[in-house]
TrEMBL record:
Superkingdom of origin: Eukaryota
UniProt-annotated location(s): Plastid, Chloroplast inner membrane
Annotated coiled-coil segments of the chain: none
Keywords, in A-Z order: Membrane, Plastid, Plastid inner membrane, Signal, Transmembrane, Transmembrane helix
Family: Belongs to the SLC13A/DASS transporter (TC 2.A.47) family. DIT1 subfamily.
GO molecular function, one term: malate transmembrane transporter activity
Membrane-spanning segments: 30-51, 63-84, 96-117, 150-170
Name recorded for this polypeptide: Dicarboxylate transporter 2.1
Organism: Acer negundo
Membrane topology of the entry: Multi-pass membrane protein
GO cellular component: chloroplast inner membrane
Listed Pfam families: Na_sulph_symp
Main location: plastid
Source organism phylogeny: Eukaryota, Viridiplantae, Streptophyta, Embryophyta, Tracheophyta
Length: 176
């Protein structure tokens, strides 16, 4: 908003320019609301409650840390279908999923870096998954069903590459 104010103040843009960009304002408004909702889920304790339930469930299965790591990483990635932004998702779930992985015995650096890696990948999962994705979809080059199909297929391809090549690379780096 400060940047927009400066552009308006110095005459780089006028208010008619701003009014003609309806999709940009629409995107800004929706992301503000959805990020706010994600932060409220955290503030109300919903995220902690869910992480406690998942943690207890994983403990009841007595999974070894590599299995718990795989399950939690997949869950963290695919839960993003329910979030409208990377910021909201990370703010609400990153620390909870990191805590669950540490409790399951996953090496800390591996867990933290893998969650960060997944955060970058799910930005292209849907048309609402990140600010950039909304802009690309809003340009009208890709139909909505195709966005979901391509996002899911790319998620599977990335998971296969990450699961095969990444396993060896992280072992080489000494992360586990």
């Amino acid at each position: 908003m400060i940047g927009l104010s400066i552009l308006l103040l110095f005459g780089v843009l006028d208010w008619d320019d701003c009014l003609s960009e309806k999709s940009a304002w629409d995107t800004l408004a929706w992301f503000a609301v959805l990020v706010g909702m994600a932060s409220q889920l955290t503030n109300l304790g919903i995220v902690n409650w869910i992480s406690d339930c998942v943690g207890k469930s994983l403990q009841s299965y007595s999974l070894c840390w590599p299995a718990a790591f795989g399950v939690l990483q997949a869950a963290y990635f695919f839960i993003h279908y329910m979030f409208a932004s990377q910021t909201g998702h990370v703010g609400a779930l990153y620390s909870a999923f990191l805590a669950m992985q540490l409790a399951a015995g996953v090496p800390g650096v591996l867990a933290a870096l893998a969650l960060a890696y997944n955060t970058n990948l799910f930005g292209a999962q849907t048309h609402y998954s990140s600010g950039q994705a909304a802009v690309y979809f809003g340009a009208g080059y890709v139909d909505l069903p195709d966005v979901f199909k391509i996002g899911f297929v790319m998620a599977l391809i990335n998971a296969i590459i990450w699961g095969i090549v990444g396993t060896f690379w992280w072992k080489f780096l000494g992360l586990y």
